[in-house]
Design brief:
5% of the residues lie in helices and 42% in strands. It is mainly beta.
C-alpha cells in the first residue's frame, strides 16, 4: 500500500468517526477564547442563586452553588452582576487570556433600609421612573382632567410623575404634599383600575411611610392596598399588609405608616396597589422608609427617644416614657398596623428632659381600640423613634 493511499484511508476513517461523534471538535473560535468563572455570594457568605453575570451580550445565571461561567475573546472585560434582591455590582477590567481560565468571585450587598422620595428629581410626566417599578395590570386607557392636557394624558399607564404646575393650563388648585410633583394613578376608562407602584428593594427597614389623597370625591374616594413581597416585583407575589379591605384615601393629604419590622432578616419590596372603580385620581407623595431604633424596657434610654411603656402588654392603660434632647415641637402618636393614625398623644412644643403620658386604648374618635399590636411613633428634633405597644383585653 502506498503512502498516498494510506493517508487517504486515514482521512476517510477520521471523517467517518467525526460523523459518528467519536472525535472531539475544537473550532478556531474555541481556541481563540478564554473563560471567566467563579462564585457569587452575599455578605453572609451564602451562595446567591439566579444572579445574572453578564458582559455585553454574553451572560450566565448562577446555579444553587452560586457558580457561573462565561466564555469570551481575549481582552479586558467589564462584568455586571445583578439580582432583584441585591445591589447591582460592576467590576471593570477583568482579564481574559486565550485558552486560560480567570477566576473571579463576587460578593453582593443587600440594599439599604432607608429610602426617601418626593418625586422632585424625576422627569415631569414620566411613566417609568427608577428606582420605582410601575405595573399596569388593567392596560386600559386612563381618564384625564377636563380642559387640561399633559404628556401621556389618557394613555394606558400605572403611575405617572404628575406636576400640576406644568400641565396646560397649569392646575394651580392641586398642591403636592411637598415640592411640586407627586406620583399619580388616573382611573381606567374600563374599570376597575388595577395599578401598582412598587418600591426598590429594602433591607432591614422598620417602617414604610407615605402621604396619599384622592384628587377629589366627586366620583367616590380612591381605594388602595399596600403589600409586601420578598421575591420581586410581580404583583401576584405581594402579601397585603393593609388589612382585608381596601383603604379609602380622603380628598386631603393623609399620612399612612406600615410596620416592616417583621422583615428585619430579609429584603422586601413594598407595593402601593391602586384598585378602584371610577374615581378621579390617586395621588402619592413624600415616601419615607428607614431603619429606626425600636426600644424596649431593657434598653438604655437615649437622649431623644421612647424609653418604653409600662405595663406592656397592657389593659386598659399604659404609661409611655420618652425623653427629648432639646426643646421644640414634638409629635407623639399611635398607629395601627394598617398605617392609620389611631391616637394623637402629643402635638406641642415641649421642654427638653424626660416626659410621660398615659394612653388608655381610646382612639381620636373616643372609641376603644381592639386588642393587637400598635406602633407609638415619636418625632422631635429632626429624629424619629418607634416603639411597639401590645394591647391585650
Amino acid at each position: 500500500m502506498t503512502a498516498k493511499v494510506f493517508c487517504l484511508l486515514l482521512l476517510l476513517t477520521a471523517l467517518a468517526s467525526l460523523a459518528a461523534g467519536e472525535l472531539p471538535v475544537t473550532s478556531y473560535g474555541d481556541r481563540d477564547t478564554g473563560t471567566i468563572t467563579g462564585i457569587v455570594r452575599n455578605t453572609y457568605n451564602h451562595p446567591v442563586q439566579s444572579a445574572t453575570v453578564s458582559c455585553g451580550d454574553v451572560a450566565d445565571t448562577t446555579d444553587t452553588s452560586g457558580s457561573y461561567r462565561l466564555t469570551l475573546p481575549p481582552g479586558y472585560w467589564t462584568l455586571t452582576v445583578s439580582h432583584p434582591l441585591y445591589v447591582t455590582f460592576v467590576r471593570p477590567a477583568v482579564p481574559v487570556t486565550e485558552g486560560e481560565t480567570t477566576y473571579c468571585n463576587f460578593m453582593l450587598q443587600l440594599p439599604p433600609a432607608w429610602f426617601h422620595d418626593s418625586f422632585e428629581d424625576h422627569e415631569d410626566f414620566a411613566l417609568e421612573f427608577a428606582p420605582w417599578t410601575c405595573v399596569d395590570v388593567d392596560l386600559s386607557d386612563t381618564a384625564g382632567i377636563g380642559g387640561t392636557s399633559w404628556p401621556h394624558a389618557g394613555e394606558p399607564q400605572a403611575f405617572i410623575v404628575f406636576n400640576p404646575t406644568a400641565t396646560i393650563p397649569p392646575l394651580t388648585e392641586i398642591q403636592a404634599h411637598s415640592g411640586s410633583k407627586m406620583a399619580a394613578s388616573f382611573p381606567a376608562t374600563i374599570p376597575p383600575s388595577w395599578d401598582w407602584l412598587i418600591s426598590p428593594p429594602l433591607s432591614g427597614a422598620d417602617y414604610f411611610n407615605f402621604w396619599a389623597r384622592s384628587l377629589n370625591a366627586d366620583n367616590g374616594l380612591e381605594r388602595f392596598k399596600v403589600g409586601v413581597s420578598t421575591t420581586g416585583t410581580v404583583p401576584q407575589s405581594f402579601a397585603i399588609i393593609s388589612g382585608p379591605l381596601a383603604l379609602e384615601a380622603p380628598a386631603a393629604w393623609t399620612e399612612y405608616n406600615f410596620d416592616l419590622s417583621g422583615f428585619d432578616d430579609g429584603v422586601v419590596f413594598v407595593g402601593i396597589h391602586h384598585c378602584t372603580n371610577g374615581g378621579s385620581a390617586f395621588l402619592v407623595d413624600s415616601v419615607n422608609s428607614e431603619d429606626v431604633p425600636v426600644t424596649d424596657d431593657s434598653q438604655t434610654p437615649v437622649l431623644t427617644g421612647i424609653q418604653g411603656n409600662y405595663p406592656n402588654p397592657f389593659n386598659p392603660e399604659t404609661r409611655i416614657s420618652y425623653s427629648l434632647g432639646e426643646a421644640g415641637p414634638v409629635e407623639l402618636g399611635v398607629f395601627d398596623l394598617r398605617g392609620r393614625k389611631v391616637k394623637t398623644l402629643v402635638s406641642a412644643d415641649l421642654p427638653s428632659g424626660h416626659h410621660n403620658i398615659i394612653w388608655n386604648g381610646i382612639d381620636d374618635a373616643g372609641q376603644s381600640v381592639a386588642s393587637g399590636v400598635y406602633l407609638c411613633k415619636l418625632r422631635a428634633g429632626g429624629q424619629r423613634c418607634c416603639h411597639k405597644l401590645v394591647l391585650m383585653k
